[in-house]
Amino acid sequence: MSIYIPGRVRMAVGLSGMTRRNFLKSAAAVGAASLAAPAVVRAQSGVTLRFLNNETSVASQAALKKACDDYESKFGVKIIVDSSPISGTMQKVMAAVAAGQPYDIMTSGFIAGILEYIHAGAIVPVTDLVKKYDWGKKAAWEYQGENWYYPFDYNLVVNYYRKDLYAQKGLKIPETWDDFLKNCQALTVVNGGNVDVGGCVIPLASDSSTNWASFGNMFAEGAELFDKDWNVVFDQGENADRATRFLDFYGELYKTMPPGMNAVSYAQLMSLFATGKAAHSVYSGRLVEALETTNPELADKYGIFPSPGSTGQKALSYAFDGFCVGKSNQSEEAIKFLQWFAEEHYVDWLLSAWMNNHPARLDIYENERWKSHPMIKKHWNTMMTMKSYIEGDNIKIMAIDTSGPSIDMRACNVFNANVMPEMLQQKVLGNASSADCVAATAQRIRSVI
Amino acid sequence: MVQDRRIVALFIGSISLLAFIIGGPLIYAVMLSFYSARSFMSEPEWVGLSNYIKVLQDPLFWNSLTNGLTIALSSIVLQVVLGVGIAMVLNKRFVGQTIARSIAILPYFLPTVVACLVAQWILEPNYGLVKTALASIGVGMLDWSSHAFTAKGTIILVSVWLWTPFVVTCVLAGLQTIPTQLYEAARVDGAGAWTQFWHITIPGLRSVLIVVILLRGIWMFNKFDLIWLLTKGGPLNQTETLPTLAYRKSFIEYNLGGGAAVATISFLLLSGVILIYLRLFPIDDAKQGR
């Protein structure tokens, strides 16, 4: 029986005698308690980690947030994610360290940055974690006998071509750079003084894109910057000849490119290919993602091949991405998180940029969840071709900032000072002879290392 | 007496605040130029004048200085000539004068980044408006970013577009302070438009022009954003200026000492030029009409 009391609604609850208001209060308390449970665990653990992430796509940020939320609910450790474009990451890390508030975990894509962190004592090794798995070649490099980052992808610079255009013109996948040049020339369309379709796009700007993407052919040809004792040998003997030949080739190739290569951005490298303005482009797997998003029809008509040298040697330029752990009194907690992340959420993380995050860890290629992603399935041949590049010995994988006998800041200095992009500019914009460019570049390398 | 103390207190407070905000970073930058530092994380190492010697021996420094002067002087000359001309037109009475004045100042309201992106997309050599327009009449598009002359020219043109309105506004205000009787008297004496311009308008605008040229000079010589957004110092460092060089050394090559040395030399050079300029064209004298 219920009795009406003004201002108070009594429920027909029999013996309990509970009012509706009390019931609601109790329910709210229970709800709040359950919601606050992770906070209680957090209060127990008392740990908050700070994560600097430079993979800023919506999907990657969402994957990271899900992982962090999951970790917090399971272990009571809160993780605050701060996202920043890759170009600003090192400044943020430096500022945080200088301010006495270092990040506990950070993504990193430049060796120079990681070496700076090591020299400043800002990160700790993650060797034990890295050694648990097998990695593709050059992915898990060591410095001073330790692994300082936990890799997640390669950014191999492959050459993309249009299968439909190749079929129309009866072209074959190039085996030498002369073949490549002929293909580019055959596919270049000039109308009224404007390049309507460029034979290829290979960047020329004084920035990281050119350092990263424009030297595959030079590596294939075998031109070395340093000998085993870090002497600069770029302008000496056979190296000088190789570099000169490469520049002669690049000079001819440049004539087939659309205008604006001197200022081309990463995004434009993709868009010029995706919009049919270029018959070839150099890029990582991200270009396939761009095709699927902006021009799905073309996503069925592309193919890839490595950069050829003059007599059929093959090479690929590359970069990488991975996680570093900051040195602080929370390093142990950060490593625990990274270990858990590498086992529980690594695949989700990779799939957040399904083709660009070309796995560096070899067991991933056998992972059913990763393999069953619809886009991985669709582009399986491309992925397996890229995998073949990181396994065999027939294709060299090299980079400006990993040149030399070991990982070292000297090669990074060459990368950061844009010495090599300026060599290309001297050749094609300054109209200097290839031999002069090589000599000047070697001098510049000596001055910056 | 109490009022005097308040004034002194406010004066000391303002100076202290300025010293903290401006002097602190300035002193830090100058100090940094005497150290070898690869990052803000590692311990800097004292190297004395080594950074200055290296910078002064680097041809890129002198190239950047020349580029900076060329870009600054060219754009200032164009901004002032155009600014004075437009201001004189806008100073005349005509229908729609207020609307014309508002439109004339519009570009000054644009953030530099917006103006540069708009300019880049207009001039983009593959998809840009200019390329499309030229292609429609069968003319090829020039790859402006690949040639030193056109890259510098683009920087100058965009800066003239953005900052001529500032000159227009200042000169327009200056023109309105010149007594109209002077022009009437000149006309009675048979002076033509050109004579009036040289003997009345320019002397009347002297103080305004001295300040405008000084400010535009400082701003253009220190201009970083516009150059970085349009060309990043390329091609072949032909649009590299001292501010972009300082940035490149500090935040791309991570040579903080070298970057600080470039910034310090740039600061000293600019200070020296300003002192000479103000000695040659004293603002007080101009105000007093001397």
Automatic annotation (TrEMBL), chain A:
Primary location: periplasm
InterPro entries (alphabetical): Bact_solute-bd_prot1 (IPR050490), SBP (IPR006059), TAT_signal (IPR006311), TAT_signal_bac_arc (IPR019546)
Cell location: Periplasm
GO cellular component, one term: periplasmic space
Entry superkingdom: Bacteria
Family stated for the protein in its record: Belongs to the bacterial solute-binding protein 1 family.
Name of the protein in its database record: Carbohydrate ABC transporter substrate-binding protein, CUT1 family
Species per Swiss-Prot/TrEMBL record: Roseovarius azorensis
Lineage, top ranks: Bacteria, Pseudomonadati, Pseudomonadota, Alphaproteobacteria, Rhodobacterales
TrEMBL record, chain B:
InterPro entries registered for this protein in UniProt: MetI-like, MetI-like_sf, UgpAE/MalFG_permease
Keyword match Transmembrane helix: yes
Protein localization: Cell membrane
Membrane-spanning residues: 7-35, 69-90, 102-122, 156-178, 198-219, 256-278
Residues making up the signal peptide according to the UniProt record: none
Topology within the bilayer: Multi-pass membrane protein
Sequence similarity: Belongs to the binding-protein-dependent transport system permease family.
Name of this protein: Carbohydrate ABC transporter membrane protein 1, CUT1 family
Species the sequence originates in: Roseovarius azorensis
Lineage: Bacteria, Pseudomonadati, Pseudomonadota, Alphaproteobacteria, Rhodobacterales
